[in-house]
Predict the 3D structure of the following.
Amino acid sequence: MTRQELEERLISFAVSIYRICKLMSKSIAGVNLIDQIIRSSTSAALNYGEAVSAESKKDFTRKIKIILKELRETSIALEIIQQTKLSEAVADVEKAKKENNELISIFVKTLQTAQKNLQIK
């Protein structure tokens, strides 16, 4: 997968989260989770842009760690949304969970490779 393809995938993921949130309950819990998950899912995409422009291998590694942190936060928020049935978009939530897990796997592997490259230095 190219950098551009991964960037597009992260953007599409953030857009899918936005669409899920549009169908969520506007209760206090719903509004809180909407705010949180939109921030964490978009942060992953935005930080990827920073990682691509990293000033060093160490900076790149740090940005990838941030991306993983945000994706894991998004994962937990999706699980809460699913278990509390705060969104009417049940199938979309399940699809987003799958995509989120795949993105986490990609960035875990990316981080492992980056850390290995730092040790070679």
Remarks:
- Helices lie at 3-22, 28-52, 57-84, 90-120.
- Residues 3-120 form a domain with the de novo design (two linked rop proteins) fold (CATH 1.20.1440.60).
- The chain is about 85% helix and 0% strand.
- Residues 25 and 31 are 7 Å apart (CA to CA).
